[in-house]
Amino acid sequence: MKPREIFGWCCYDFANSAFTTIIITVVYAVYFTGVVAEGDVRAPGWWGTALALSQVVVLVLAPMIGALADVSARKKRFLMTAAVACAVATMALYFAGPGDIWLALALVVLANIAFSLGENLCASFLPEISTPENVGRISAYGWSFGYLGGLLSLVLALVIINSGEGRVSWTFVMTGGFFLLAVLPTLMLRERARRRAGPGGKTVWQLGWAQLGQMRHELPKHRPLLIFFGSMLLFMAGLTAVVAFASVFATNVLGMTQAEIIGLFVLLQLAGVAGAYGFGVLQDRTGPRLALVLSLLQWIVVCVWAAFCTTKTEFYVIGVLAGSAMGSLQSGARAVVATLTPPGRAGEFFGYWGFFGKLAAVIGQPVFGWLAAWQGYRTAVLANAGFFAAGLVVLLCLRLRPRVGGENR
């Protein structure tokens, strides 16, 4: 492996974090519910449902795209195409003003589909640029770079918003441009796969569909990975809900201003860098199980505390805890999949990783959104702790050990 490739790989996380930070979490979620939807009480439900719909599409596409990337040896081309599509759809959000609910939701769906497919493809390079001894650290480098990218995009957004009235929509243009520029070093990644012809003269598309159909037969052969995906499905349902609604909760429950929310997420990003790196080192020293267990326990505390939080100061402390736990949980999960993936099938198995991660969003985000609309945000946050607790129970039943000689033990 070459340091320049690791750097290029990390830059994709740096680039795409602007999208999740500005659009999904901090600025656009509040802008949609308050400006585009004009304060409609159903806005949280619409927002959660739109994000879930985008993940339904990814559920269908991710395993096949991963398989196609492997057999056609075009993983990097697919990755960069996803980046451009996400960036363009993000910039187009500038044109969705008050009342343009369906245009806004359609663009968010398109952008989130491209973002999610790119996230899967980026992750599939991890087994190629790491070893079992350093996979936790390299995965953590990526998440740490991602939080730094999110931090920089927040600073830029704050400058734009403070430059005058009515400037919020320009942050969406900035976010798309940030993605396009910051992703350029990812071109340094090398395509290691060799193009494979389908048996019996099948095209790569036919082979891709065939591999997708084999998923239900293939995963049971890798039992530790299958059980881990079950745990990940549960805790990622909780995590995706937090990402989608944290700023909306802060605005509607605690009355935080846009500037205060951005300040909160600056702290969260810094905590995320520390959490991703610290837990990555812990994972390489003790194995992935302990780091993930500690992260999940921390998330349960975060959700329960947030449900009863009454002051902005409390919420800032909660945000720091959430940031450190978020980086460690995502980094740890990606590293576990990289460790257990059979050689030469990274695109395919990270397609499965994407499948379960997106299925989690289909569950978690609309559940939170409609619970918030019907029962209030505090009830939704408290219920969200249940996803992390359930994921922890499944994880505690699983022994995670690295693959030896190509087999999962």
List keywords for this structure.
mainly alpha, 409 residues, disordered C terminus, Growth Hormone, Chain: A
Give structural notes:
With 409 residues, the chain is mainly α. The protein has one domain (3-188, 201-396): Up-down Bundle (Growth Hormone, Chain: A). The chain is built from 16 helices and no strands. It has helices at residues 3-26, 28-36, 43-72, 75-92, 101-123, 126-129, 135-161, 170-182, 204-213, 215-218, 223-254, 258-286, 288-308, 312-340, 346-375, 377-396. Helix 3 runs antiparallel to helix 11 (223-254), helix 4 (75-92) packs antiparallel against helix 8 (170-182) and helix 11 (223-254) packs parallel to helix 15. The two termini are 26 Å apart. Mean pLDDT is 84; it is low at 402-409.
CATH topology name, in short, is Growth Hormone, Chain: A
Written as H for each helix and E for each strand, in order along the chain, the element string is HHHHHHHHHHHHHHHH
Compute the separation of the termini in Å. Answer: 26 Å
Number of H/I helices: 16
Q: Which bin fits the share of residues in helices?
A: over 70%
The profile of the biggest β sheet is:
none
Low-confidence stretches: 402-409
Number of strands: 0
Indicate the proportion of strand residues: under 5%
CA gyration radius, whole angstroms: 20 Å
Question: Layout of helices and strands, plus pairs?
Answer:
Layout: H1 3-26, H2 28-36, H3 43-72, H4 75-92, H5 101-123, H6 126-129, H7 135-161, H8 170-182, H9 204-213, H10 215-218, H11 223-254, H12 258-286, H13 288-308, H14 312-340, H15 346-375, H16 377-396
